[in-house]
Write a structure and sequence with these properties.
Elements: H1 2-41, H2 50-73, H3 77-95, H4 106-127
Helix pairs in contact: 1-2, 1-3, 2-3, 2-4, 3-4
């Protein structure tokens, strides 16, 4: 019975990590989107860089979300994968709203959405705490 409580708390930690990661994904992504909009605003032809810069902001936000998910939950790749899946579903739902947007082929849109969990998992790999190779204290010698 103790193991089910332990598994339940680990699952709750991963869900909490995924929820906090959504805040980081949206917040960091929004900040980078503002930065990239300022960069594009000062260009002669901003229309040519809107899509690449907005995708960069999205994927940087996903990296930050994966990083936050692993730091909050303490788990590794699984928390980043859950966070990326939730982010992908969230952005897929946003994409269904009737805003004017460029038309993509289904292959392109599939690749753009499939990269969201990949970047989130990469962020969780980067953010995973590792043990240091060297001991933290000196060994006393005689």
């Amino acid at each position: 019975m103790n193991t089910s409580h332990k598994n339940r708390s680990a699952f709750q930690a991963m869900l909490t990590g995924a929820g906090v990661a959504q805040l980081f994904t949206l917040g960091i992504g929004f900040l980078f989107l503002l930065l990239f909009c300022a960069i594009a605003f000062h260009m002669k032809d901003p229309d040519s860089v809107i899509l690449p810069l907005s995708l960069c902001a999205l994927y940087i936000g996903c990296l930050a979300g994966g990083f936050a998910a692993v730091r909050v939950s303490g788990d590794g790749i699984l928390s980043g994968c859950i966070s990326g899946g939730v982010t992908m579903l969230l952005f897929r739902l946003i994409a269904l709203l009737p805003f004017p947007a460029p038309e993509f082929s289904p292959v392109q849109a599939g690749i753009f959405f499939a990269l969201i969990p990949v970047f989130s998992v990469c962020g969780s790999i980067i953010g995973k705490k590792r043990r240091s190779a060297s001991p933290r204290h000196r060994v006393r010698r005689r």
